[in-house]
Amino acid sequence: MDFKSLPSQYDHAAAQQKWYQFWEERDYFHADPADPREPFVIVIPPPNVTGALHLGHALNNTLQDILIRWKRMSGFNTLWMPGTDHAGIATQAVVERRLLEEEKLSRHDLGRDGLVARIWKWKDQYETRILAQLKQLGCSCDWQRLRFTLDDQCARAVRETFFRLFQDGKIYRGKRLVNWDTFLQTAVSDDEVIRETVKGHFWHFKYPVIDARPGEPEFVTIATTRPETMLGDTAVAVHPDPAAAFDELSSKLREEMLTASEKERAALNEEADSLLARRAAVLPMLEKLRDMAQRGVKLELPLTGRTIPLIADEWAKPELGSGCVKITPAHDANDYEVWQRHSEIGAINILNPDGTLNDSAPEKYRGLKMLKARDAVVADLEAAGLLVEIENREIDLAHSDRSKMPIEPYLADQWFVKMDELAQSAMDAVTDGRVKITPERYAKTYLDWLGEKRDWPVGRQLWWGHRIPVWSKNFSNAAEKANVEEEAVQLAAAEIKDAGATLESNSCFYHYWDPETFAGTAFWCLQNDHANLAAIEKSGYKQEQDVLDTWFSSALWPHSTLGWPEPTPELKRFYPTSVLVTSRDIITLWVARMVLTGLYNMGEVPFREVYIHPKILDSYGETMSKSKGNGVDPLDVIEKFGADALRFGIAYLTTETQDVRLPVEFECPHCGALMNQTKQNRQLPRVKCDKCGEAFRTQWAEKPEDKALPRGAVVSERFELGRNFCNKLWNAARFSLINLEGYEPGPVAANDLTIEDRWLLSRLTTVTDQVTVAQGEYRFADAARGLYDFAWNEFCSFYLEMTKARFSVPEQRLAAQRVLAHALDALLRLLHPIVPFVTEEIWQLLAQVAPVRGIAKPQAAEESVCIAAWPEANRADQDAMIEEQFAVFQAVLGAVREVRSRQNISMKDELNFTVRCSDQAAKLLRPMQPYFTQMARATGTAFGPDAAAPDLSASMTLPGMEVHVDVSRFIDVKAEVARLSKERDQLAQFAKLIDGKLANKGFVDNAPAEVVQQQRDKLAEARGQLASVEAALGKIS
RNA sequence: GGGCGGCUAGCUCAGUUGGUUAGAGCGCUGUGUUCACACCGCAGAGGUCACUGGUUCGAGUCCAGUGUCGCCCACCA
Asked: How are beta strands A459-460 and A547-548 bridged, if at all?
């Protein structure tokens, strides 16, 4: 092949297509459990099938791929298990929203099966897209093992786990106040609730006291932001000891004052004063009310005809509102807690699932939406003369992250998983080091959350998910209860007969009832749909409507994907996995739960290490999201810059801090210019290019005239770094390939190695070491930066420049080629995990000219860099002497170049220079003579202590050296004087600084001798330099 | 309210256990294209390391506090 005809710009698009296919065809990504090599396993955090992947996914998966490719090259039996997550609420919400928008249909129009079928279609579409994206990114997953959290294999694992927990008594049914989304008609988790401060009102009402004694208040005033909930009130509370509560507040304030600053103290004082005033104003009344509560006084709940008790509970804060608080256990989390302490008050749910008031509300309000009911209640109370006042106030409004509708707290039946023992086991795994979290600080997040050991509500009122494998039936008296029990015994017997299995292993019965009435509910949990199912359904049991929390199936991911509960060879070989790579926001939701179920089901942690990577934010520090319009699609970046550029950029940015900020730009489809995205323009349907003035459309385009415009991709210039790097590498390779013409493999004897050869091999060893260590510690930025500097500044800027000349010298050419082929080979291996495509492209080209390479023992290179061996750092190649020689050379070269630039001397003009330096330095510099000519068009005419400066010279002083460039033909005296004066001032200042340091007795006495000596040397050095600068100055002026 | 993290060049970020005159990329300035690469080469300018105090011979680095931005958790009827 004629390498000269290769384009000077790397064509990433062609390479990506070609080589990904090549890898897949050869099955490099497939892991065989029979392979005896030590396994290295990662399970992918399964992306939600909600939509396409974003830049965060690109980050997450790039890092995993780097690790996997590196370990694959390092000789591990490598498995990267891919898959996607059904993401219950998120996916159902997206599909339902589209259904409504596009077809004006609700899920009830389609029915359960119809909706689920629709979601499966959606899933297929997006899964395909997600997998394509991962492949374009270069991810080397074992695609033959692709899983989905809702597929049959995962379903089996879910069912098995639920059954075991149920049998174990770790699953129970209870009441729980949930965040009810009235649009989706489902409970959403706390994590899916967004709170926002909005302007609202604070209504004060009074409830009449029944049979108040003389001297006692006839009304109790309460305040609320949600008046309609009063219809569900079951009590009003007052603090049991308001005086003590006030005392406590006061002493807390005093305590704060002790440590407060002047400024704060004023504020605190004011606070203390108002507290005292308040105490004086309300205390007598509150104490009276408290006494009344203890006496068992009842209040009339207006509008309802009900009476409710006045109770004493600490939840009522004497310093807030009226000092009394209405209690609505069914619709407020705190009130719910009060009910737990005072079970006698009961709870009344006044809401229907769709957010309208139900039959528990007075007839007048039934069927009204909450807000309508609010207006009606306020009006009616006002009419009854019970409205005291309306305050304006900022309130926290909760709404659903999924549907964007307001959230109503709502009391519902829920299935729970008992967390005490499970959580403890997961905590122990981290505290005793079986699971290591990096960076370490995140272990705290994990432990704190698990430490609360809050039971896990696992039911979701959705249709998309794993349906809870429990069948239930209600009974309402002792006779029915006895029937149910009798039935259970028979069913169990039938079970044993029909299926030949024991009761314990296949189905599990559980029931609870009210001890007074014997009314209750009976449940069967079935391990699978065995013969008992028909019998159970025949006796009137119905399967639960709810599905399991998505995290329930995600929690099993590391073992369910490997085949659990079957004892598959994969499970034996690949569990536990090696490392989990994920982002910090799901440490609790996902990581902790995987550890706990892994321990429960497998008796072993699911992974040895957890690496938490940063999050990607835009330049305002905001998280990227489609709804903000600042989301960057990895495919746009790949198209513009290439997958390798994206990957390199990501690795380069992945440091240990929490976040990565990325400036976000539109790319003009007309002129290709990048233009900053601002908070304003990122919301527009069309944007005009700053540069060419042409308009283009954004993701918001809806009108036909906007949609007709070409699309402006959203990208980030940050990826230019990676693109430029790949291009640099490409051109270095092109140069190498051109010069490898006529290459023949063969060993290179040590004394055939030139200075630059030995230097490069020495540096290569160091870099190999650095990169290997950095990747092992998840310091991806260090690895990328190390390789970038080495490839660009050492391999290209020095090695290639210096070795160039040898290719035209016949007797040197072959040795030079052999070293070059070897060096390029090593560089490609080191870079491959980060930039797989360009390295493969070059690897294949290199194979055409140099299929056998290596300088000690040439060997045939592997057919793909993907499976090539990871380089080992060869200590013998490290050569401090050579590196020193290079440092001196580079310093002098830099000085000569600077003089040339400063004096504005063209490269066409040759220069002479002398270096006054020690004999030792001279000895290092002399052999470099040809390189000065080659790289700076300059000839060193004298090196050593006696080297004299030419008559008219421009000088640079370096530590231990003076470089004098003969500029008799070119001198720009003014520039030189200016430059020297500046240098003199700097040196003088520096010398003064060190002088001061050394004059400090404390320093000389206390600092280690070597540090003091270092400073003394430095001072001498600086003074020497100063003298020579002054001499040069004197001479020139 | 509790916890975590950031604050270093115009921008985005490095900076190991305290010890040379604090670095990189982009951007900027000057300059250069027959001779791998203008997605390039060569050179340059640019920093009160957020602030205050402390420890130390010595602090970007350690400690305390302040400010500020962000994230997580718990929450004000």
From this structure: antiparallel
Nucleotide nearest to A12 (CA to C1'): B39
* Nucleotide minimizing C1' to CA distance for residue A779: B14
Half-sphere exposure of A731 (CA within 13 A, CB side): 11
The first and second tokens of residue A712, run together, are 């402006």
Whether residue A949 contacts residue A955, with contact meaning beta carbons closer than 8 Å, is answered with yes
Note the CA–C1' distance, A125 to B11, in angstroms: 39
Q: Which residue has the tokens 């384009």?
A: A7
What is the residue type of A362? P
pTM of the model: 0.85
Q: Which nucleotides of B are covered by protein (CB under 7 A)?
A: 3-6, 11-15, 19-21, 24-26, 30-32, 36-44, 56-58, 65-66, 69-77
Query: CA–C1' distance A819–B13 (Å)?
Result: 35
Measured between alpha carbons, how far is A172 from A187 in angstroms, rounded to an integer?
18
Dihedral sign (CA A1010, A1012, A1017, A1018): positive
Q: Is A274 helix (H, G, I), strand (E, B) or coil?
A: helix
Which helix (H) or strand (E) segment is A769 a member of?
A: helix A755-776
This model of the complex carries an ipTM of 0.92
Block means of pLDDT (10 residues each) for chain A, length 1037 residues? Answer: 86 92 95 94 90 85 95 96 88 82 81 88 89 93 94 91 87 79 72 66 86 84 85 87 79 62 60 78 84 86 86 81 83 80 81 82 85 86 85 71 73 83 89 87 84 83 87 87 82 60 66 80 82 80 87 92 92 93 85 92 93 83 70 86 92 81 81 76 79 79 83 84 93 94 91 92 92 90 91 93 90 92 95 96 94 92 94 86 89 90 86 91 92 91 89 83 86 78 81 80 79 81 82 78
Q: Is the dihedral of CA A691, A692, A698, A702 positive or negative?
A: positive
**φ, ψ (nearest 5 deg) of residue A198:** -130, 165
CA–CA dist A154, A148 (Å, integer):
7
The nucleotide whose C1' lies nearest the CA of A316 is B77
**A898: nearest nucleotide, CA–C1' criterion:** B43
End-to-end CA distance of chain A: give it in Å, rounded.
Answer: 60
* Cα–Cα dist A856/A613, whole Å: 40
Nucleotide nearest to A727 (CA to C1'): B39
Handedness of CA A1031, A1033, A1036, A1037 (dihedral sign): negative
- Distance of C1' in B17 from CA in A449, Å: 33
Residues with Cβ < 8 Å from A739, sequence gap 6 or more?
A804, A807, A816, A817, A820
How far is the C-alpha of A616 from the C-alpha of A630, rounded, in Å? Answer: 11
Token pair in block for residue A828:
């490609």
**What are the C-alpha distances in Å from A704 to residues A144, A666, A686, A798?**
43, 21, 12, 56
Distance A787 CA to B40 C1' (A): 19
Within 10 angstroms of residue A715's Cβ, the number of other Cβ atoms is: 27
Q: A324 pairs with which residues across the strands?
A: A238
- Considering only CA atoms, name the residue closest to the C1' of nucleotide B72: A585
C-alpha A945: how far from its chain's center?
Answer: 59
- The distance (Å) linking the CA of A996 with the C1' of B55 is 22
Q: How far is the CA of A690 from the C1' of B2 (A)?
A: 47
Question: How distant is the alpha carbon of residue A374 from its chain centre?
Answer: 42
